[in-house]
Amino acid sequence: MPLELHDDSATLIGVVTVDEVEQLTAWLRGSQRPRVSLRRCNHLHTGALQALLLFRPKVSAAPKDAFLAAQVLPLLTGSSGPASRQGTEPP
Amino acid sequence: MNPLLAQFLAEANDLLASVDEGLLQLERDPGDPDLVNEVFRAAHTFKGSSGLFDFPELTRLTHAAEDLLDAVRGGRLALDSGMTDDLLASFDLIRGWLAHVTQHERLPATAGGDASGLIAKLRAPLGGDAAAASAAGSESLPVRAIDPPPDWLATFGTEWLTEVATWLDTTTATLRFVRYLPDQDCFFRAEDPVHLVRQVPGMDRLIVVPPERWPATEEYDEYVCLLSFVLATRASAGELEYLFRYVPDQVQIAELDAAAINRHLSGEPEPVAVHPHAAHALAVDPALAADARAVLAAAHRTLAIGEPAGTQLLALIHAVTAAAHVLGVPLDLAGADRETVNAAVEGLLGEAPDEPVAEPPAVAPPVIEALAAPPAAVPAEAAGRADDPGGQVGTRVLKVDQEKVDRLMELVGELNVAKNGLTFLADAAEEEFGSRVLSRRIKDQYAGMHRIAEELQAAVMDVRMLPLSVAFGRFPRLVRDLSRRLGKTIELVTEGEDTMADKDVIEALGDPLVHLVRNSLDHGIEPPAERIAAGKPQTARLTLAAVADGDAVIVEVSDDGRGVDPVRVKRKAYEKGLISEEELESLSDSEAVDLVFRPGFSTADQVSDLSGRGVGMDAVRASVEKLGGTVTMRSTLGAGTVTRLRLPLSMAVTQVMVVSVAGQRFGVPVDLVVETVRMPAAEMGRVLHQDVVVMRGEVVPVVDLARALEMPWTPDPAADRAILVVAVNGQRIGLLVSQFHREVDVILKPMDGLLAYADEFSGTALLGDGLVLLVLNVKEVLGLAARTA
Q1: Are A18 and B192 an interchain contact pair (Cβ–Cβ within 8 Å)?
Q2: Residue A41: inside a domain, yes or no?
Q3: For the whole model, what pTM was predicted?
């Protein structure tokens, strides 16, 4: 099972497919201060990524997967805003 | 010759013909996208197949042609007559090569040299490649299809764009920029945009664009895709198109260089689109280039010696322009004076790196085209020399209209019937005319004719036989595409592709097989994660196997997926009202699995676009039964499913057992017949309203065929009962008949016209004595019997 959900923390393992999106979203909706470990996650379905972007849980462990670490983690930790926020800048 | 090569050569002939025809039509109607596509596909197939053999020149040349056609197909290039000439010349050259290959199994020694000139010419409109350009000894002026900078470029941020523009400027390189706006409901089509995006090779920068405004968390629908993506990559346009081939309408790809990005940064408007003719690369056949240079040198001398004017100057200008065109530099010197011409010639001769002195792009098309014609004709002739006029590509394969083969089959049937008439004639000769000798001679004649007719029939049947690889051929692609779409890794294994079956069977097998394979992919095989959790290898295995079994062929589709859950199937069937409550309790697991073949049954909870709209397995069973075959399914929960199709090898000739009922003869397909028995009337039992016989400890119900067919007949109480035992849907049923006759091979004609409604007969056949035999559709007859009982 790619999702291990606890009260406030979740672990995403392996490939998170579209089948897990609903469960993940429900959990994010329900928890107060969600924390997510992506260490063992290899792929996030777009729907899962979208949910994480909306609910912005704290990422407790960075993913090992190169793509997720390089391209996805910065979006979730929100520290390097420029990547995602530049759409409004004047050309 | 290796069979693969022989097949390639046979196919090549057709492909070459279709390429030629397509190109010629295309020249007349350059805008037709279907035609371009057709020619492109042929060239593509050619390249693909040529890669199987060690013909590097062939692959390189077809590759160049394919690239050019691809550019035309993509609208990046307009096909002109020069390009068509080059393409035709290339394929002529290939034809010559293949004739050589047919005889010597290798390309002619001159292939490399012949090809390189053409490759350079084919590549020229695309911007040429380095080798071609250096061969021509001139610097190329490539046409890169630089797209106008799209407005979404701003997403990348000014800072990064400036950096990239500087880098691209320094390196005169380009980057591909992609915007991917997934449809909101793309998740339902098993698309995963992030998964696609992460496969982009050579990714330089990826930006995930969140929606402008996120919905409130309560209203958020997790199945609506709100994200979009912009990315910059070094992957080629072709790679990107391939990767995004399922979602082309959601993706924009722009190829940009430094100038385009800078234009975007400074907010400049787009310059007028560059004319495709504007800058041909100087990538030309070296021989032609040498000729052109000689012309130019002569012109230069003329200009140096005297002061040509009037027509002399005009002729000179013509010569220079033509030479320039050959070198790939279009010049417009119309009305130019001596100085300008001289400068242009010097520019060309000096191989000046820049565009020679001349009005840049504004080309007067008529002049150029008129001039383009003569030099373009030269390479075509040059290529023609390599053509082996007497050569024949591939072995002769005769393509025959299917109808003609069918007609031949019909005639064989008629011949069989006519031949069978001879036995009756022999009997008549003996009985009516009392000539035993004549009867013997007719029988001898009959034996000879019989042998020939049998052989003829076998030969015609053989023509119609195709290997099952024809039916399996489409699956590697189908499985690959679907598995990518579903995010499953599947290995397709095919076995017994060389098993032969009648073409009608092969053709009719296509749809049921596609259905079964899709079902396996969609419902049977689990996603990788689930497989790993179940302790199975991540890669699923789908096997298509065919094996000949007497006069039938067995095709099995098996997977190692999750299998059919008999409990779920039973519950589902009960919910849908397909089975009663008692059946819900009493059905065995294997019977439960069989329920999936009931009409109106579909196990998938969610209807997907691949399969599963409740018209699935019953359609498979119906179409297979129409062929006279059977479908069975075995499944082990958690370990996989095997669907087995059993089909007759041929549908043209049916073996029937002739029986008579109430004085009339009927045929019963031999496939169904289990045995024929004679029973004393006293051994017939009766259970409830059903006659039964007990055979080897098994109770077999007996149906009185005469009663079922409403034919008055009272069996002789003293005589033994003749019972034909048939197996229908795995059940044994006895048919009470009055007499057994022999088995015959007949050509079954379906019931039509006034008799089309008579479902209890599957067709009619003509016997040798001129009698029309009705062949029973046993399943329907039993249904009829059940109703009348």
Answers
A1: yes
A2: yes
A3: 0.41
